[in-house]
Inverse folding.
């Protein structure tokens, strides 16, 4: 069986079979260069092994593992509560999804019902995390095409969001807020007002960004037609999230399999039909506005008072009944899932983390990079919004 | 919920399924013998709309001497996740490849080969290292691999730590006498 | 003999001034750029410290003779460019070595530095360097087209290739500036100036994100210090050149400062607002509208 | 048990190294030649040089771990490290500060060593977070190093997980002070104890060869 | 390419005319948020060194190191945190049972020496030690349970009518829930006089492994059925969980284990002990001390004979504690297992009266006596010898023997100890109106808190700060008791205040019976004179060494006569120590001779 990628019909360059180096590097026609792990154009710490002919990429191979810490192994020898600080590290820009999914899996296996307010608070942090992550992403997308100004603004806006997180949870990056049983603390006093003023500020900057970036001749020139994901590739490559929605595929777990309180919120799935990096940027821009709207809705609809934590059995020797489950949620990059197996002891038997970047950054990237200009690989990679730690964990 | 149960009875006519576990309206698990797995996956993919390979992973059931492989598939129409599980022997673990169904299956298989030592003959690049580099020990996700021991032997924990056990220390301080030791 | 010594002294003064001016201009513009980005920005004198630090590096790896010579060529290019441009009209000190055909020599020197750099970068062995050099040369070839057309147009208009004479021709009021007497030539040249100053959207040569950081990937320590000094001089030289060619030159050093500052600000204004083109896109861009404008300018003169 | 051991050996033998297929000559990319220590200048000249070094810190843009996430705000307008003379550089040749963002997996450790050696002296290393001190959260992981100072010399440690950007700025201030006082001589320390560092590095980095560049 | 696409991007320059986002002085302007998880702080006075923080830390970042003096309920250890491991998750703060651990909002600590990042919060001098802000566990979020699982009990209405056991015992579910609260710190072990392995047997309950539990319990306590009901549970006063609210009900969990296993199954679980070695030991008194010594001696292979003056074994457990607290069949359960090991109990034989002490002294290889305190103190007021004034113990003893005490319809109990409460509540069960008089305040009462509460719950009237003045023969009732009000006079700091009679205050209670329960003294009359001369006594106690060996090397003594704690569990511990001592004395002459 020949790998589908190797027969990419778009490639002008003949594939060579046999698993050997397919391009004769000594011929002088091809050159192999590495992008990353030490490279500002790479998302996180990973690398692309590119074979180029002139300015054109003829073969791309993703190398990951630079951030492999063995989370899944480490969790096998930690108690359930001890896994809680660990999981958020799997995804740094958006740690809350890990916390939520881990908590959700444990709660299901242990049969714990969390209070209503905890659900709202969880959804609130998740949505805030989405906004935060997108804000950094848009800076990266503009930056990967050389427009540093946008990144300077939006990363600052992200920082304002981090201030909110810090106030709520006590941590800027690793919030460790969603714990099995609920959340760790209630909203501080006057939080709503500060959220609103931050959102207003972000909205203003987003308007500016939209004007300066989305209606930018050069940006359009670069992003349009870059990294085209056709709708039929979506299932084949397991593409989820904005990458799929940018191709007009209407899928959003928040709507399809609503979790927490998403069924009580009023929103529509954002789609674009351009299928390229530009369309994906639009999807994410719109999802930022959507997130802002959802945060506002939640602030309004949230029960104003009530318990936010359901007492757990003593966590020092908490035995979760045997069983297995899978939970997923819609993070900024796509479907984020936790598969958990418990064997009835104090330690989880297996926790598997399904990160959307797993397919986006490896198989999909390897396919899309072929035949792009070498200067576009960074932009292409960012437009897939990949994050390496969730690949290698 | 009934839909999946109906489907299950249809599938059961063709495959020897067992261990059907209907977790919720969104999730079910089913066990398939190893030799029928890929055929079953192909069937549900092509005929039942489970087009999306969510993930593919293994659990090391050391006590039973098997690896339990889990293929999680998703059906976007019914919005249902189906976990297809199969047990393969731990010794000379090998499984049929699914990279022809989904290209990213090859990545999962590459990872499983590296982390568990499960072979997938024919899967592209399955022997290439994935996340590890220069790894010569047992595949680390195997249950009998002790990561703490390995870490302490390989890396250098900073010396100079000493801790006291509360109970032991209080005994030393408050009732060191042999008369009260039992 | 005295004349030569005096000339040498004047040249040194002129170089000293332009180097410092270039460095300060660079520092100032970094602050201006920072302002758009909503921050304070580096100190104005930061380029000095960077150069001092780079020259004080204890080690420096080299990859062969050409690697040594690359920055030297580059610096020679920068110096050459500047030394044939009269910086201040009518000033003895800043007249430099202007002569009747200096415009051609200047254009050659603009190219020369880049070529020298290409040799050095090529020997560094890093794959990013030749990629960057390739991009740089390709893009340069492209922006030279409208620029050359513009030069041809004004040379035809004033029947001279001497910068001093061109400046002299523009004296006596703002409407005498070539910018107004031959706006098409000015527009073509100013667009190609964006490419020449390697700011966005034509900065892909030294872009950190798009694979190479360009020719200087392997350049470090005093090599880098030399390149930075050159950048200051070269920048100054280009600004002075454009000022002389299109904006009436400068009768005093203060006028020069103001005019060059504004010209530089123009590239910064464009640079902060746009991402960068890929090299093929920028080539297409330069060979499109700017070239057409340049041709139009030439044709208008020919008519 | 022996069966499974055999199987593991088999798996190990099937694993391909990144540079498989290269000639023996090409494989030895790693620089084992001994560098030479460079003595600092004496007196006011060195003081001046140190002042300049402290005021112009160029960070290598290599996000080795999660600490990299806080470099982003630091570089952008909220914290604006440029005003302190600190800026990122994309290539190790031009950088003089290496910020190790927390944990380093074995695979990254190799790149860290490589990048560190490519940097030109004097060069400084900042260790972020617990992980660089004693392994941090990943103290029992099979793939992360526990003590960074066993592999490269570290000048300043900043506690926290993650350290806030302010803590990083404070760390840079400390580093600046050390440079001005002439205390940040990590590079010479590395050269003087070259064998020790190399032995430590070789103990963990089994796949010692570098990836196959064809330059 | 539209014109908008060219012009719109220049809108970025708007920003150039606005205020920069940059924080001017980031190091001064932005302290951590009020909840920031910064560096640790620890309240040294609150911390008890339980080590729960160390237990929950997934990074093995916390060591416990000696800092202060070890006392009961405080190990003297304090957490030392390795910032080369910490991840600032604050789980240690969340779980800290005393809430002594917290986090400041300080977050800058920079050093070039990696070895310095280990410190003892609160002990080492750090600038953030007094930080008010920073992470603390939020209200409404708690990882530990502070409330006890409620014990099913008879209502007071029910209980005061009969001698049915009032505390009904946990169900399996309740026991597991209660056992789940344990944090297994082990601080209680030092405080338990018998040093029972409390965390281990509680773990056995969690694991639902009663056999294991029983084994652990019998390791240190051969009378668990009794102790599980009436132990004075010193452990619960030092329990780390108590700082969160209520202590773990360690006593009732122990009882739960015993209640789950039939006596007949004991042998399957417990060790048989060593084979007989032919040596004979005499034990005088079958109270907890004696039974404990007998049990451990018989495990060591000695032939043990217990001499007891009453007709049933158990001593004060049986005759001093009413049945509603400790049913007799539970004492029987403990005693029966001990006798099943071959221990011989000779009842109704009082040494000194029926058999001379010297005979036993000569006949056996060693003698252990724990005869307890049997002589009640008198009230020392006039009219004390009137009819109707009876000592509390005597009354309880009668009840145990099945006699109906002659108490009439109204009773005054004088005293504040457990005996007083027992007497009062027993009287209540015979239908009397009961008033308890106590000299000091309620918080000074030596009786267990729950006993006082239950006594009050059963409508016993508690009158504190009341000093009996004199007794007179009554008119309608048998007696008239005059008492005076007392005020508490401070005796200086650290000392407990003394009750002093308020001159002129005098009140009267008319009653049928006055039960005195203000303490007892030991009775050493059974010892032969020559032995008495050999032994040394101090304030009524026999002087013993750590193995409870008296000045006569052959004689060991324990229980209330040898230790001032005066409770069953101490007596059990004494018996155990003495058994060890006897073993050493008989096998290893050099050591204890």
């Amino acid at each position: 069986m020949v790998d589908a990628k190797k027969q990419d019909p778009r490639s002008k360059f003949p594939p060579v079979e046999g698993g050997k180096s397919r391009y004769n590097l000594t011929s002088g026609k091809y050159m192999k260069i590495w992008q990353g792990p030490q490279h500002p154009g790479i998302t996180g710490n990973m690398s692309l092994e590119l074979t180029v002919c002139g300015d054109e990429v003829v073969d791309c191979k993703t190398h990951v593992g630079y951030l492999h810490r063995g989370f899944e192994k480490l969790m096998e020898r930690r108690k359930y509560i001890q896994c809680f600080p660990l999981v958020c590290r799997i995804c740094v820009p958006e740690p809350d999804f890990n916390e939520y999914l881990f908590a959700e899996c444990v709660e299901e296996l242990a049969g714990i019902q969390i209070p209503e307010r905890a659900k709202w608070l969880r959804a609130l942090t998740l949505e805030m995390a989405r906004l935060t992550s997108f804000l950094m992403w848009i800076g990266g997308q503009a930056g990967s095409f050389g427009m540093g100004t946008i990144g300077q603004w939006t990363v600052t806006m992200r920082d304002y969001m981090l201030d909110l997180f810090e106030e709520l949870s006590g941590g800027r990056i690793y919030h460790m807020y969603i714990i099995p049983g609920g959340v760790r603390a209630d909203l501080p006093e006057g939080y709503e007002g500060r959220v609103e003023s931050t959102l207003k500020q972000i909205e203003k900057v987003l308007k500016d960004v939209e004007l300066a970036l989305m209606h930018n001749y050069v940006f359009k020139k670069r992003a349009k037609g870059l990294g085209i994901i056709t709708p039929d590739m979506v299932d084949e490559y397991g593409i989820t999230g904005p990458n799929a929605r940018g191709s007009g595929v209407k899928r959003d777990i928040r709507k399809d399999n609503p979790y927490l309180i998403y069924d009580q919120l009023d929103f529509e799935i954002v789609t674009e039909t351009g299928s390229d990096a530009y369309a994906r940027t639009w999807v994410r821009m719109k999802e930022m506005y959507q997130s802002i709207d959802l945060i506002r809705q939640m602030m309004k609809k949230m029960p104003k008072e009530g318990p936010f934590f359901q007492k757990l059995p003593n966590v020092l020797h908490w035995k979760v009944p045997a069983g297995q489950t899978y939970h997923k949620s819609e993070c900024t990059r796509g479907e984020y899932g936790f598969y958990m197996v418990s064997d009835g002891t104090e330690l989880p038997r297996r926790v598997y983390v399904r990160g959307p970047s797993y397919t986006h950054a490896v198989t999909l990237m390897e396919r899309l990079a072929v035949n792009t200009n070498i200067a576009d690989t960074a932009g292409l990679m960012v437009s897939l919004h990949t994050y390496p730690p969730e690949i290698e964990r | 919920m009934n839909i999946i149960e109906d489907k299950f009875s249809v599938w059961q006519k063709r495959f020897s399924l067992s261990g059907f576990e209907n977790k919720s309206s969104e999730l079910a698990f089913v066990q398939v013998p190893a030799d029928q797995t890929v055929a079953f996956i192909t069937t549900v993919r092509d005929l039942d709309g489970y087009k999306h390979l969510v993930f593919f992973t293994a659990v090391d059931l050391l006590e039973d001497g098997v690896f339990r492989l889990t293929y999680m598939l998703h059906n976007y129409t019914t919005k249902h996740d189906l976990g297809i599980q199969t047990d393969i022997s731990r010794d000379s673990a090998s499984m049929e490849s699914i990279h022809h169904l989904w290209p990213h299956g090859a990545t999962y298989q590459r990872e499983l080969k590296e982390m568990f030592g499960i072979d997938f003959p024919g899967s592209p690049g399955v022997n290439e290292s994935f996340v590890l580099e220069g790894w010569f020990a047992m595949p680390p996700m195997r249950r009998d691999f002790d990561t703490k021991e390995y870490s302490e032997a390989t890396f250098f924990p900073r010396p100079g730590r000493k801790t006291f056990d509360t109970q032991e220390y209080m005994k030393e301080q408050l009732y060191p006498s042999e008369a009260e030791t039992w | 003999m005295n004349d030569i010594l005096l000339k040498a002294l004047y040249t040194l003064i002129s170089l000293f001034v332009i180097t410092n001016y270039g460095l300060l201009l660079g520092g100032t513009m970094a602050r201006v750029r920072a302002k758009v980005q909503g921050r304070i920005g580096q100190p104005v004198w930061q380029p000095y410290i960077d150069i001092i630090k780079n020259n004080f590096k204890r080690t420096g790896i080299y990859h062969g003779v050409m690697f040594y010579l690359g920055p030297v060529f580059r610096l020679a290019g920068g110096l050459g460019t500047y030394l044939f441009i009269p910086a201040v009209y009518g000033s003895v000190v800043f007249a430099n070595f202007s002569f009747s055909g200096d415009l051609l020599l200047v254009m050659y020197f603009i190219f020369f530095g880049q070529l020298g750099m290409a040799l050095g970068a090529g020997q560094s062995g890093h794959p990013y360097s030749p990629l960057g050099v390739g991009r740089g040369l390709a893009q340069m070839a492209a922006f030279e087209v409208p620029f050359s057309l513009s030069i041809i147009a004004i040379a035809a208009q004033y029947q001279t290739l001497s910068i001093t004479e061109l400046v002299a021709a523009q004296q006596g009021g703002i409407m005498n500036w070539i910018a107004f007497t031959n706006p098409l030539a000015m527009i073509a040249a100013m667009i190609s100036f964006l490419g020449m100053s390697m700011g966005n959207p034509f900065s892909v040569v030294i872009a950190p994100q798009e694979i190479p950081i360009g020719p200087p990937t392997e350049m470090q320590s005093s090599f880098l210090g030399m390149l930075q000094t050159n950048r200051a001089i070269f920048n100054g030289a280009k600004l002075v050149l454009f000022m002389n060619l299109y904006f009436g030159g400068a009768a005093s050093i203060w006028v020069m400062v103001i005019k060059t500052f504004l010209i530089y600000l123009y590239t910064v204004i464009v640079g902060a607002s746009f991402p960068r083109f890929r090299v093929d896109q920028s080539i297409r861009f330069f060979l499109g509208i700017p070239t057409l404008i340049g041709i139009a300018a030439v044709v208008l003169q020919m008519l | 048990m022996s069966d499974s051991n055999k199987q593991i050996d088999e798996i190990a033998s099937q694993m391909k190294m990144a540079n498989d297929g290269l000639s023996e000559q090409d494989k030895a990319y790693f620089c084992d030649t001994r560098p030479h220590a460079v003595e600092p200048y004496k007196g006011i000249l060195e003081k001046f040089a140190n002042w300049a070094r402290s005021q112009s810190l160029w960070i290598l843009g290599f996000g080795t771990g999660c600490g990299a996430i806080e470099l982003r705000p630091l570089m952008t307008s909220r914290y604006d490290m440029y005003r302190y003379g600190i800026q990122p550089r994309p290539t190790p040749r031009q950088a003089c500060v290496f910020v190790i963002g927390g944990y380093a997996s074995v695979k990254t450790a190799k790149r860290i060593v490589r990048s560190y050696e490519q940097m030109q002296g004097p060069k400084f290393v900042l260790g972020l977070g617990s992980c660089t001190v004693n392994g941090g959260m990943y103290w029992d992981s099979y793939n992360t190093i526990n003590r960074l100072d066993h592999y490269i010399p570290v000048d300043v440690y900043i506690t926290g997980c993650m350290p806030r950007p302010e803590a990083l700025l404070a760390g840079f201030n400390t580093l600046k002070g050390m440079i001005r006082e002439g205390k940040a001589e990590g590079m010479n320390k590395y050269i003087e104890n070259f064998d020790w560092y190399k032995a430590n590095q070789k103990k963990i980095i089994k796949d010692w060869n570098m990836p196959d560049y064809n330059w | 390419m539209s014109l908008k696409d060219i012009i719109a991007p220049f809108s970025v320059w708007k920003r150039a005319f606005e205020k920069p986002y940059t924080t001017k002085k980031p190091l001064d302007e932005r302290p951590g948020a009020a909840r920031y998880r910064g560096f640790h702080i620890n309240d040294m006075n609150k911390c008890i060194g339980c080590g729960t923080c160390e237990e929950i830390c997934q990074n093995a970042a916390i060591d416990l190191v000696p800092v202060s003096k070890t006392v009961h309920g405080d190990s003297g250890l304090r957490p030392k945190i390795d910032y080369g491991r910490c991840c600032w998750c604050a789980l240690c703060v969340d779980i800290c049972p005393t809430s002594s651990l917290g986090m400041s909002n300080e977050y800058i600590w920079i050093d070039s020496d990696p070895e310095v990042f280990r410190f003892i919060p609160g002990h080492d001098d750090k600038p953030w030690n007094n930080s008010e802000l920073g992470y603390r566990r939020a209200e409404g979020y708690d990882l530990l349970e502070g409330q006890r699982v409620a014990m099913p009990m008879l209502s007071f209405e029910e209980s005061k009518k009969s001698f049915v056991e009032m505390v009904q015992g946990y169900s399996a579910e309740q026991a597991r829930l209660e056992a789940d609260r344990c944090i297994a710190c082990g601080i209680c072990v030092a405080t338990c006089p018998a040093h029972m392995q409390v965390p281990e047997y509680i773990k056995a309950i969690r694991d639902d492994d009663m056999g294991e539990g029983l084994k652990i319990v019998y390791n240190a306590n051969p009378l668990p059925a009794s102790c599980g009901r009436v132990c004075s549970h010193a452990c619960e006063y030092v329990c780390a969980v108590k700082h969160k609210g209520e202590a773990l009900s360690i006593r009732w969990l122990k009882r739960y284990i015993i209640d789950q296993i039939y006596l007949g199954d004991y042998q399957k679980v417990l060790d048989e002990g060593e084979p007989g070695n032919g040596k004979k030991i005499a034990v005088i008194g079958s109270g907890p001390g004696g039974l404990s010594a007998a049990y451990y001696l018989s495990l060591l292979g000695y032939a043990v004979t217990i001499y007891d003056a009453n007709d049933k074994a158990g001593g004060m457990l049986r005759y001093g504690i009413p049945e509603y607290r400790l049913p007799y069949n539970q004492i029987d359960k403990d005693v029966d297992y001990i006798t099943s090991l071959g221990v011989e109990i000779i009842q109704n034989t009082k040494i000194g009266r029926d058999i001379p002490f010297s005979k036993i002294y000569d006949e056996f290889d060693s003698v252990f006596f724990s005869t307890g305190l049997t002589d009640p103190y008198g009230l020392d007021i006039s009219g004390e010898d009137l009819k109707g004034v009876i000592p509390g113990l005597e009354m309880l003893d009668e009840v145990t023997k099945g006699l109906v005490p002659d108490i009439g319809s109204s009773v005054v109990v004088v005293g504040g100890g457990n005996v007083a409460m027992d007497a009062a509540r027993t009287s209540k069960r015979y239908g009397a109106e009961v008033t308890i008089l106590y000299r000091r305040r309620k918080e000074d009462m030596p009786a267990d808190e729950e006993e006082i509460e239950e006594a009050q719950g059963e409508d016993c009237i508690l009158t504190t700060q009341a000093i009996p003045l004199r007794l007179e023969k009554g008119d309608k009732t048998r007696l008239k008791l005059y008492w005076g009000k007392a005020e508490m006079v401070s005796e200086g700091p650290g000392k407990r205040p003394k009750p002093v009679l308020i001159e002129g205050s005098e009140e009267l209670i008319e009653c049928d019976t006055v039960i005195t329960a203000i303490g007892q003294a030991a009775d050493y009359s059974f010892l032969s004179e020559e032995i008495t001369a050999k032994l040394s006594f101090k304030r009524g106690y026999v002087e013993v060494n750590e193995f409870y060996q008296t000045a006569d090397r052959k004689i060991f003594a324990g229980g209330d006569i040898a230790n001032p704690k005066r409770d069953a569990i101490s007596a059990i511990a004494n018996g155990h120590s003495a058994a060890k001592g006897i073993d050493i004395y008989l096998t290893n002459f050099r050591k204890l001779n």
User: Anything to note?
Assistant: Residues 15-19, 26-30, 211-215 of chain D have pLDDT under 50 and may be disordered. Chain D touches chain E at residues 77-80, 83, 127, 130, 132-137, 139-140, 147, 149, 154-161, 163-167, 169-171, 173-174, 178, 183 (CB under 8 Å). Residues 93 and 120 of chain D are 6 Å apart (CA to CA).
